[in-house]
Amino acid sequence: MPTTTSNELKNEIWQLLKEYEHTRSETIRNQLVKINFGLVRKEAHYWINQCSESYDDLVQVGYLGLIRAIEKFEISKGHAFSSFAIPYIRGEIQHYLRDKGVAVRIPRRYLAIQQQAIGVSRTLREKYNRQPTDSEVAAGLDISVNEWQEIKLAWVNRSPLSLDVPIVDGEEGTTSLGELVPDPKYRSFQLAQEDQIRLQQALFELEKCTREVVECVFLQDLTQKQVAEHLGISVVTVSRRVKKGLGLLKELMVGTED
């Protein structure tokens, strides 16, 4: 029996996505869910080590995220489907865990390495005058690249996107990510959780250079001058990308209400 190569599988998924976009066929959607089962399984395995929920429950919840990703995916934007789908699968599982009040655990070793990584990253930035790669940080910590990426993921999931972090825009005063949320009543706890997930998904859709600036400002709470130094660009460029990013996020957030 011939073995399906990675490229052949990607091509099959792409063709099915094109067909689904035009037909919205439930049969095709189910085919896509079956083919992409590995994405759900990988996320479920990650979370099973950090909570008390069963693997089967996490898989079922992850499937809901995968279906939502299939329904939201647009061929014209040129994203790799797997990269597009993961935030939806992860978001659905996070939402489920928060709904149930499940405490997500981070291994003590991960916490210690994350603290050590702050100093390692600072040293590498000073040495190379740029942001260090995952491989460089992992080597400095004497761990594998895969483990370092798992630790980063655990830390991001522990500290979800804040809707209230302020940003000062020279022309328009102070704003925050929360102001991009279409529903003005988002302050209720549960809706805030949903909006955090929607914002994480919208952030992914920004082009890389714009997303990096927005994440530095909102996730790392850096000033525009610090972001400029961190990314090696001018303050004017930072300001321009922040404005562009906020505008695009607002459009994307409104779009998620459809």
Automatic annotation (TrEMBL):
Keywords, ordered alphabetically: DNA-binding, Sigma factor, Transcription, Transcription regulation
Annotated ranges, domain RNA polymerase sigma-70: 57-70
Record-linked InterPro entries: RNA_pol_sigma-70_dom, RNA_pol_sigma70, RNA_pol_sigma70_r2, RNA_pol_sigma70_r3, RNA_pol_sigma70_r4, RNA_pol_sigma_r2, RNA_pol_sigma_r3/r4-like, WH-like_DNA-bd_sf
Family annotation (PANTHER family): RNA POLYMERASE SIGMA-E FACTOR, SIGMA FACTOR F FLAGELLAR
Protein's recorded name: RNA polymerase sigma factor SigF
Gene source species: Nodularia harveyana UHCC-0300
